Amino acid sequence: MFGFFHQHKSVVGSGLLKGAVDNHSHILYGLDDGVKTVEDSLEILAWLEEQGLSEVWLTPHVMEDVPNTTAAIRARFEELKAVYPGGLTLHLAAEYMIDNLFEQRLSARDLLFHGEDIVLVETSTMAPPINFWDVLEDMMRTGYRPLLAHPERYRYMQPDDYRRLHGMGVYLQMNLPSIVGFYGETARRRAMDLLDKGWYCMTGSDCHRFKTVRNQYTALELKKDMVRKLTPLMAGPSDRI
Questions:
Q1: What single DSSP character describes residue 22?
Q2: The pTM is what?
Q3: Of 3.30.1360.30, 3.40.50.1110, 3.20.20.140, 3.30.499.10, which CATH number belongs to 2-234?
């Protein structure tokens, strides 16, 4: 038992969060299945700052079932910034489900970017949209770079799919809780494989609730070699972008 605690650290205890950037969260209140109230948003941000984070990207869902408009998201972001007293740098983007609404927004160039011309996208964890690869290629032709959220969680993906994504130049964002097994052993193994290959360019919490992210980040699950591999991704986008 002593050996386990000696070798394993939590995300918090590892020091990974010191100066880190959270590139994917649902902390912007009242827009999706994430945080519901401004008080909850402020509580989470205060805790993340206490753990040493420097920047947080707020990336609410946009999909047919949650058709947030760009204007509404921007307005809510300004409301949060007006009452946020902390020192974290807050950035705004969105997480777009690849569906008919996204194709409409893409065609209209009505998107919130995760950095210059980078668009955070996702699919169902169970099955891709029929035109998944076509949409990614359309984005690239338009001059946008897809940033695929939590690819380790897509049960339908095979090794050749990840290889194809990497070969296309699609950026990959790891959910940090995947490494501590929050989404199950299969997602954890896939995350480790993609990490070992060097195909991730950034990490994110995908935070929806304070209690959940606190539990994820304080679980004793990280070995020393895992901390070493994750460290280059924690300060924000790597030199692969």
A1: E
A2: 0.95
A3: 3.20.20.140
